[in-house]
Amino acid sequence: MTLTVQPHREAVGLKAGRLYIDGQWTAANGTWTHRHPATGEVIGEFAVATRSEVDAAVAAARTAFESGAWSNSRANTRIALLHRYADLLREHAEELRALQALDNSVPLSFGSIYAISVGAAADVFDHHAGWVDKLGGQTLPPYQGGDHLAMTFREPLGVVAAILPWNAPFLLFAQKVAPALAAGCTIVLKPSEYATFTVLRMVELLVEAGLPAGTLNVVTGPGDPVGEALITHPDVDKVSFTGSRAVGKRIVEASAGTLKRVSLELGGKSPALVFADAPNIGLAAAIVVGAVTMGLSGQACVANTRALVHRDVYDEFLGAAQGMASTITYGDPFDPGVLACPLINERQLERVLGYIEKGKEEGRLVTGGERLGGDLAAGNFVGPTIFADVDNSATIAQEEIFGPVLAVVPFSDEEEAVRLANDTEYGLGAGLFTADVQRAFRVSRRLRAGTVGINGFQIEPHLPFGGFKQSGLGREGGDSSIEAYTELKSVFMPLTDEMM
Ligand code: NAD
């Protein structure tokens, strides 16, 4: 039977996507047609913002920022709004998951994974609500003696352009919007063209929560021209971006004109180090393969797509990894038995298949390696793919493939494992599996990665997340988010005329 998601589209009552500028929803020109990655069906249309609409959105954010309608309102009002929004997200979790399944085909079953769930996004808003009345500075003792005050203040940074990828719209919307609002900034948001309907609904709920007009504006459409118009806009103070390294580099280039502040959350080639003393090799293999296949089909920035495995447990790991791969199911994202999504578009499908061909020259294919056919032929499905005996310098061990492809690299001792783990241009995440507590901390300190998981991995609202090396600039989460959306100001004041 041919796969279709049309009944679900009708059930959620999907409407044409509109822009949201200065408190007004403006009619969509409908110039972008979104096709479902699992079926190729047309899901809906949304506006591609013109340059003048981007200008209007930035101007609205600027006016709202200068007015202080949001940043100067009572702290209690802002705290209550952010909590109210968190509650609204939780109330609408099912609807949002359905919209996401229509946008990017991430299966409903994956909703139970905390890190990218609606619940995690709601928690991020609750967490940042707590910062609103705690953005204090310091009062320092006079350095030169005498009678004066030296103080610091944290001021909201200004107008933020927030640009999102398609793969985790709930969490990544929250990771940018919650701290920017908590800090008192105003925002122009651009969702990915592959997850627009989900984000537009999240914005509708924010409007329902009572956000003042102009505080958050939304422009939709592809990176070029809509994203470009934002990152080159002279009146944007900061670009907060999550996406590919290539676009991240373009943003750094474009920021030079007006020296915009830039935060970048980019890609990775994260290693999982499986030591011979791991408490449970089968479980380690299930976690590693699950991260590269379940839910997002490896289209996750922090997925551990390189497994570095000690030679003593190498065969056992490979056997368990193949077993785990055989349990991954594909199809209708609304079917509770479906565990993983297709690749987001045909371009990504071709790219991943190209890496798989390369992998056949560079390693030993032990599982998968093919596009899935039959009922799934109209979608961009590729099954779990495992390459063994890969040299760490191989293309498939070095480049971010963004698909369900795991490269397994053997190692002989801890020193070699750490060297291989760090031998990459990226540094987003790393995982290690060991029962030796001293080794766990010793190795985690030596890994050049923003987040390290010991026998497991989780993203939490109060933990900074971000990358070393070419995986990014800055951090999101916890107090690092607040620093990212504020400027620090020093104020000096003599208390007598002698210091003048
Ligand atoms: P992408 O870079 O193709 O697109 C991301 C966003 O940038 C989209 O909204 C896109 O429209 C926009 N864009 C594209 N070109 C632009 C330009 N010239 N100017 C301004 N905006 C532009 O990435 P994607 O395919 O949506 O997401 C996948 C990438 O995101 C992967 O590399 C993944 O590792 C990374 N990612 C990182 C994190 C993290 O937290 N570090 C999280 C999720 C995804």
Report on this model:
The protein is α/β, with parallel strands linked by helices and 500 residues long. Helices cover 37% and strands 19% of the residues. It has 16 helices and 20 strands. It has helices at 6-12, 51-67, 75-91, 93-103, 118-129, 169-183, 196-209, 223-231, 245-255, 281-293, 314-325, 346-362, 395-398, 414-422, 437-446, 478-484; strands at 19-21, 24-26, 32-35, 42-46, 139-140, 148-156, 159-163, 186-190, 216-218, 238-242, 261-265, 271-274, 306-310, 364-367, 385-388, 405-411, 429-433, 451-454, 472-473, 486-494. It has a 7-stranded mixed β-sheet with strand order 14-15-16-13-12-17-18, with helices on both faces. A hairpin with a 6-residue loop joins β3 (32-35) and β4 (42-46). α3 (75-91) runs antiparallel to α5, α5 (118-129) runs parallel beside α6 and α10 crosses α11. The longest helix is centred in the first third of the chain and has 17 residues, at 51-67. The N and C termini lie far apart (84 Å). The mean pLDDT is 96. Bound molecules: nicotinamide-adenine-dinucleotide (NAD). Nicotinamide-adenine-dinucleotide binds at residues 163-168, 190, 192-193, 222-224, 227-228, 231, 242-244, 247, 250, 265-268, 301, 400, 402, 428, 472.
